[in-house]
Amino acid sequence: MFVLYRSLKYFVLLVWSAFVALPFLWALTTSFKTANGVVSGATYIPWLQYEPSLEGWKVLFRGEGKGIDIITPYLNSLTVTLSASFISLLLGTLAAYGLSRFSWRAGPIRNADITFFFISQRIMPPIVLSIPFFLMLRMLGLLDSRAGLVLVYIALLMPIVVWVMVDFFNNIPRELDETAMLDGCGPLETFWRVILPNCKPGLVVAGLFCIVFGWNDFFFAFILTFTETQLLPVAIVSLNSSVTPWWSLSASSLIAVVPLVILAFVIEKYLSSGNLAGAIK
Amino acid sequence: MLNLRHKYVFLLPGLLVLLAIILFPLLFTIRVSFSSWDVVMPGLDWFGGRNYTRMWADGRFWEAMQRLVMVAVSSVALQYVLGFSLALLVWRNIRMKRFFRVLFLVPMMTTPVIMTVIWRTIFHESLGPLNNFIEMLGLPAVPWLSTASTAVISLVIVEVWQWTPFMFLLLLAGLLSLPREPFQAAAIDGAGPVRTFFNVTMPLMAPISIGALIIRLIEASKIMETVYVLTAGGPGTATETASYYIYIRGLREFQIGYAAALSVTYLVLMIIALTIIAKILARIMILKD
């Protein structure tokens, strides 16, 4: 009975692992194929089933004109994601601290309502925002620019930071603030010197979520940029035209997706050390 | 509670920035929904409620709405069951625990549209590995993306692949934060694994389960990128979700006024639905014990 249960457990784990890994393995083997390797049906093992070629990878680094330019979109994605995440983290953490430590009232509005206002932004479907954002950025002259996208992404990411950090601050005892204040620290100094250093797990989790959701957004980049500022997901999806080059598509997908996979290791580390639970609840 | 002048320094920068970015789009959308703004006559005129009466009779919109509910609810339910099972399997000590945990988190780190492009090649009828595998088992090939029902299934498969990890992460974090005492007490009482699960684990996990389900339902209610890349709403309109239909009307056909009316309705319905669901979930999961 026990043996049966154990083998069943590992069987489930292995099946799910295979399901998770399938798209990556398929992309990896496809990236070494040529047109001939693709149209002859599904094949998996290089040399044995098809003649491998590096063309799918090489074409990505040949620059514009001769191949597919993947490096500029890559840098664009990196700049936009990191700037938006940083600003959101800064403003969101400050706001979350303000909401956790001070009482607010304006008419019928209380702390909980303000917190809900921040978090409720996630309910807003991107399609509802996209048309006004388009017109707004055109008015500001920020269409097709990195600055415009950063602005939009702040609205997308700040709610996540507030969501993670309000709970996190609530779990930090107030005595910590009070002791610091008694020692003569002002509110800002207390926040900066005493509270923030105790918030590293929360900040890491909030920051990771910002990076994941920022880096992985497609829709706003797709609507709000054209030729000048192309982000990575848009550049890759635009390869998916009538005659799809499966090989370079697979290669560029792997390049786009792998850096964030490293974040899975970081998150798992926090999960194991028990730091994440407080940050997520 | 502290009450100081300084408190504004903390809250206001974030709040004002968010208001500035969000308020204009929201008010603007409501105003545009009462205009006839389209590709021929762009601009704000007064069109009364005619966009809304047109919407009332627009069967395609309501079908897209129903489909959204079906896809979102079924994929989130699957994600919850699978994510919870996987979290339970790697919760306690097993061999290669960290390997499985990291691997199971990976899909949520990847860009949905990019992975959907890959999934599209996997679902390819004659050249994809999925049908290749099915044929190896001696079964007939499945036209994954070209019949209505299989296209919806394909969409759910992609959603489950992408977002079960998120559920898994929240639930595993919850499991790891549970106190030990109730489990020890259950063991002393001689409760087996099944009874322990229903009488101890589930009640303790109720709050975090509700949170996780609601977060995922909110995110799932916005499904559209996956649809855009995987099926472009097809075959016919078989996989059109609400967001995707609004995208077609608004940004393909530039019926901005009409799309705004659809957007406002969609948003209001979502807020009402999610509030009701949150209330019902809280009642079922907390009152059950």
Short overview:
The complex is a heterodimer of chains A (281) and B (289). Chain A has 281 residues and is an all-alpha fold.
Protein traits:
heterodimer, A: about 280 residues, mainly alpha, MetI-like fold, 14 helices, about 0% strand, globular, B: about 290 residues, about 75% helix
Description of the molecule:
The complex is a heterodimer of chains A (281) and B (289). Chain A has 14 helices and two strands, in the order ααααββαααααααααα. Chain A is an all-alpha fold and 281 residues long. Chain A folds into two domains: 2-61, no CATH class; 71-280, MetI-like (MetI-like fold). In chain A, a hairpin with a 2-residue loop joins strand 1 and strand 2. Chain B has 289 residues and is mainly alpha-helical. Chains A and B meet through helix 1, helix 4, helix 5, helix 6 and helix 7 of A and helix 1, helix 3, helix 4, helix 5 and helix 6 of B.
Outline the secondary-structure elements:
The complex is a heterodimer of chains A (281) and B (289).
Chain A: H1 2-30, H2 35-39, H3 55-58, H4 71-101, E1 105-106, E2 109-110, H5 111-120, H6 126-140, H7 146-170, H8 174-182, H9 187-195, H10 200-216, H11 219-224, H12 232-237, H13 246-272, H14 276-280
Antiparallel strand pairs in A: 1-2
Helix pairs in contact in A: 1-13, 4-7, 4-10, 5-7, 7-10, 8-9, 10-13
Chain B: H1 7-32, H2 50-56, H3 59-89, H4 97-109, H5 112-122, H6 129-136, H7 148-176, H8 181-188, H9 193-220, H10 225-230, H11 242-252, H12 256-287
Widest sheet, order of strands of chain A: 1-2
Strand content of chain B: under 5%
What would CATH call the homologous superfamily of chain B?
A: MetI-like
The portion of residues assigned to helices of chain B is: over 70%
Instruction: Count all strands of chain B and give the number.
Output: 0
Unreliably modeled segments of chain A = none
What's the number of structural domains of chain B?
1
Chain pair forming the biggest interface:
A-B, 96 and 94 residues
Sheet-strand content of chain A, in percent, reads under 5%
Encode the helix/strand succession of chain A as letters: HHHHEEHHHHHHHHHH
Q: Which regions of chain B contain 5 or more consecutive residues with pLDDT less than 50?
A: none
The string of secondary-structure elements of chain B, in order, is HHHHHHHHHHHH
**Distance linking N and C termini of chain B:** 35 Å
Portion in helices of chain A: over 70%
**Architecture per CATH nomenclature, i.e. the level-2 architecture of chain B:** Orthogonal Bundle
**What would you call the shape of chain B?**
globular
Rg from Cα of chain B: 23 Å
* Outline type of chain A: globular
